[in-house]
Batch of 2 targets.
Target 1
Amino acid sequence: MKLGEVGPLGASGRDGRGEGAAGRDGRDGRNGCDGRDGRDGRDGRGEGAAGRDGRDGRDGRDGRVSADGAAIELRPATADDAEAVAEIWHRGWYDGHLGHVPDALVAVRTRASFGARARRRVGDTVVAVVGGEVAGFVMAVGDEVEQVYVSASHRGTAVAGVLLAEAERLVAARGHAWAWLAVVAGNARARRFYERSGWANEGPFEYSAATEAGPIVVQVLRYVKRVAGVR
């Protein structure tokens, strides 16, 4: 969350759910600040990032309007979106995580690694489109908001809020009363965004991020929000 100018939102993400704090709703607290790339074919936990606020954005599917007056469309990602998603993810991850995670993890989070993960995760991805271009994306699986990222040019607009609200809606639609995500403690901008959006910090835990060189332990914070009834 676990993502220029605006710090990414560090939401968590799969590609290996790891050791985690026990969660509500039967969750096993899989968390992640960074993401495994692994076990169940998902990837990149906890590297979520979105742009600034966007607090008023909700669902977006019916053409909500961004801060600059452009309509925001939400739709399932396609294979053609993978390159744009990878670019946003790569830049956002570095903006929100550099200096807050071990150097060893930074070393393996290359541009190529984000491209591969974006292609693998197309089926889990919802994109926000503004003016015909991908402006951001979200990944939510089960009760976890794994990734929330906004492109640099759309940070400070309603896109981030629209995407986060969509992730909350997806978790609720799956029958979960609570949603959770992970964010690195040093990503203050992301933490403020989540807190303004009604998320609560449950405290720190360690996430063991799997890499080809072996697991790397990352310190993260677990945020939760009640989403029962969200439509």
Note: Residues 1-63 have pLDDT under 50 and may be disordered.
Target 2
Amino acid sequence: MACPSAPRSRLSWRTEGRYPYGTLEPFLGHGARTTLASMRAQAVARQSVRTADLMAPLSAALDAAIGIPSGHALRTSLLAMRLAEALGIGDRDRSALFYAALLHEAGSQPTAEGRERIATRRLVVLSRGSEDERRAEEHARARRGARIALQAGFGPEVAVTIMALHEHWDGKGLPIGLAGPAIPLFARLVAVCHDLERLIQQRGAQHAEEAIHARAGSWYDPELVGVLLALCSTGLLPELSDEDLADRVADLEPSWLERRSDAGDEMRIRGALGSGNPL
């Protein structure tokens, strides 16, 4: 199937050469400043495992900790990586997207109003609380998630994706109201895959696809919606029910950019992810 290719300027988690939320330096600890190349070289020199194999079960634990169905992050990641392939996004960018998709719910926390609210917050209009309160809550989620990603040793592209996850194409999203191409591509891509997966689990594939289509151009990048729904019509959705989903998703990381983790890396990742939600 021939899929449209987005202009190069849109194949970036940056916006016009800068971070849309300003500098991420305040979030960076000593460990987060270590370059990815250095981390990979150190891990290979010691006994190590694929970080993808480590993150797959941890993402399921994160799902459970924040009260959403187990496997949500894995299914969202599969959809996001398939969509990225169809868009022609290169290996290096897809490698970053892989971890951004697995960690997109980092920063979410259960509230006194119940865990189900977390799973559906993008799909309903909350009746309680002022707009200022909701915006403040989303600011807190975004900053907490970005900090967790950086503390775990993942790059700024992952942090920015988490921060911009709930922005809308029409500029009416949260936390700061970015609109259109000003929203980093990874965030636009993960957001539509996140919502499609949640709606499939709640209402079934047909309703999910209709709802996503209806919000193209308001919540979602219409180009991404068109490509994603075309993939759905050609057999993508059965992959979400694969019994070996964790292995299938882990194998989606471009092999030549494969990230590896040793015992110390694993402790840092577990510590960061468990800082707000014990795993």
Note: The chain has twelve helices and two strands.
